[in-house]
Amino acid sequence: MTKTQPVITPLPDETNTAYLLDPSEGPTGVFTLEDVSDEIAPEDRGRVIAGRYEIIERIGEGGMGQVLHVRHRRLGKSFALKLMHAEFTLDEEARTLFKKEARIASALCHPNIVSVVDFGDDPDWGLFITMELLEGESLLDRVRGEERLPLAVVCDVAAQVAAALAHSHELGVIHADVKAENVLCVSDDQSQWNIKLLDFGTAQIATRSNAIDQQIAGTPAYMAPERISGQPPHPSNDIYALGVLLYEMLTGITPFRDDNPTAVLQRHLDEQPPPVDATRGEVLDSALVAIVDKALAKDPGQRYATAEELADDLSSYMTTIGVRQRELEQRVGIVEYTREEAAADAFDALGISAAGLDVDGTIRIANRAFAQLIKAESAEALKGRSVLATALGTLHTEIREDLRLVAMTGKLVRRRVRIVHPDASESLIRLVMTPATGRCGSCMLAIHPLPAVA
């Protein structure tokens, strides 16, 4: 099958960034930590790097080097030091790549990009890069560790990554390996994640050359179609990878998976991703789906033109979510209930079959009448189950969409449902779904019997 190569528009004026790839160039000017190598005693050489970094402990390892927790001997401040593996010290290509990473990372200065503060070549230890010391866990661990990330968190994290990429792209630097593994969450606050984009080791400088690139670095699950086709590195590659990351945060998986990396690359070229809301198992706002789809467009010309535009759309969407939530709280007037208070509301105030549901249909609370209606053992046994898997989900197959509609619009939804009994007689019930907050979920469902059908 013959494929049309997409046309990539290069960044303007990239010549001023070419020096970043030149290993013969000297320091960039950011490496200002004072050298204290003349003070090191012979017995300390086995635990001190470059005369100034005392090794505290080993904290990680990558393909080209290990990462150490070190303390600057004069400043008394802790840093993370990436030390090149000894087996690469005589490999000139590996040394060039390591130096390139140091130069590119040191040229970037952004709150969402890990800061490089020093670089050197110790005669005993070899090449090293010194960075700010960060404590946290990778986004990959958090995506895998939680059943489903909240929409506000997903959008906020993606917006932070987009802001980091916008900065690097302004300097003509393409990260070339944006993925969940390379995003570090440094905050313990589950509602507000502060992130750092790591590992510019495979970063590329945008070029005006239209030549086909035969050497492509990156991770197959996140690789843009035009990069797979061999087109020169371009910011659109990172935007596509961020689209994959956004999809992964929403669903827990990347859009294309296969044990064979070549098959994954081919699927990026040939297939459209499965709908993000179907994979998540939840009807998502069309505005959010549109953001994901645009970031994942096969044709880079249909994608976001810049990472800044993607960040702006995500920020606008987060503002919309916040406004809706505040309006909902003001209108409904429900505060953070205890489980007992929410249950009392369902039992006493309504006096009919009622249940509190999450937007995905999970039953948070239910009263006895509700349990009897759907033939469950008890109201207590329903907690945590999905209403979609009950008889009500069979009777009203569009209940998932209705729940999402209530959550996103904050409006009451009424539905009339016809029930056909085994004896062929029919009856009607009315479902009334109203917005809610707190421990009773995002929607309160009440079921009213209607006059029998003749």
Along the chain, the helix and strand elements come as EEEEHEEEHHEEEEHHHHHHHEEHHHHEEE
Radius of gyration: 28 Å
Read across the widest sheet, the strand sequence of neighbours is 1-2-3-4-6-5
Overall shape? elongated
Q: Give the CATH architecture of the largest domain.
A: Orthogonal Bundle
Head-to-tail CA distance between termini:
62 Å
Fraction in helix: 25-40%
Number of domains: 3
The number of helical runs is 14
Structural class: alpha+beta
CATH topology of the largest domain: Transferase(Phosphotransferase), domain 1
Q: Kindly report the name of the CATH homologous superfamily of the largest domain.
A: Transferase(Phosphotransferase) domain 1
Main sheet specs: 6 strands, antiparallel
Strands, total number: 16
Mean pLDDT: 79
Low-confidence stretches: 1-15, 26-34, 207-214, 345-349
CATH class bucket of the largest domain: Mainly Alpha
Beta fraction = 15-25%
What does this structure look like?
This protein is of the alpha+beta class and 454 residues long. It folds into three domains: 15-132, Phosphorylase Kinase, domain 1 (2-Layer Sandwich); 137-329, Orthogonal Bundle (Transferase(Phosphotransferase), domain 1); 339-449, 2-Layer Sandwich (Beta-Lactamase), CATH 3.30.450. The chain has 14 helices and 16 strands. Strands 1-2-3-4-6-5 form a six-stranded antiparallel β-sheet, with helices on one face. A five-stranded antiparallel β-sheet has the order 13-12-16-15-14. It has a three-stranded antiparallel β-sheet with strand order 7-9-10. β1 and β2 (53-61) form a beta hairpin.
